[in-house]
């Protein structure tokens, strides 16, 4: 039977796997000459359920050519299966995006999302969410987030972490069924500038 301790243990084991992958690929070392790489999302928050790693890189002027120069060598590394790119500089995200798929085991492939953003990016920025969410979490809300995420994963339904954090921290949601009901009455399209205790959306 699942308990808060077993959910937390699973999340922490997944976080160890995520850092193992980051070390194998050397992504922080590869990006550092071009800007300031920041670990964000569930790995930074120790709330990992799905095999996803999120990074943001900040510099004065993101460059498509320099980004590919950093990441193209990764395509030759063992375990790397796909590398994809999106130019979203003129879209709401206002950045350059790369996704790398890494096969950790034959049964487990991790998705690594990397956004290269300008230093003056107006937000919302995932980097700005890590500290306030970590500060707001307690044992009860951390377990609620993990229970909601695992409930979604068990049903094969995608969830965006920020909405789960908002539901658990600001609205008392504790289960996946409660989350689905909350989401049905909450606009969750587009970007959000939500921070704990400040439930507002934009975009």
List the helices and strands and how they pair.
Blueprint: H1 4-25, H2 27-31, E1 36-40, H3 41-45, E2 52-59, H4 64-71, E3 80-88, E4 95-105, E5 108-118, H5 127-136, H6 139-154, H7 161-171, H8 176-184
Parallel strand pairs: 2-5
Antiparallel strand pairs: 1-2, 3-4, 4-5
Task: Give the SSE order as H and E letters.
Answer: HHEHEHEEEHHHH
| Total helical elements | 8
Q: Helices and strands: which structural class?
A: alpha+beta
Strand content: 15-25%
Radius of gyration: 17 Å
Tags for this entry?
203 residues, 2 domains, 5-stranded mixed β-sheet, 22% strand, globular
Q: Short description, anyone?
A:
The chain has 203 residues and is of the alpha+beta class. The protein has helices at 4-25, 27-31, 41-45, 64-71, 127-136, 139-154, 161-171, 176-184; strands spanning 36-40, 52-59, 80-88, 95-105, 108-118.
Account of the protein in words:
This protein is an alpha+beta fold and 203 residues long. It has two domains: 4-122, Beta Polymerase, domain 2; 129-184, no CATH class. Helices cover 42% and strands 22% of the residues. It contains eight helices and five strands, in the order ααβαβαβββαααα. It has helices spanning 4-25, 27-31, 41-45, 64-71, 127-136, 139-154, 161-171, 176-184; strands at residues 36-40, 52-59, 80-88, 95-105, 108-118. The protein has a five-stranded mixed sheet with strand order 1-2-5-4-3, with helices on both faces. It is globular. The chain starts with a helix and ends in a 19-residue tail after the last helix.
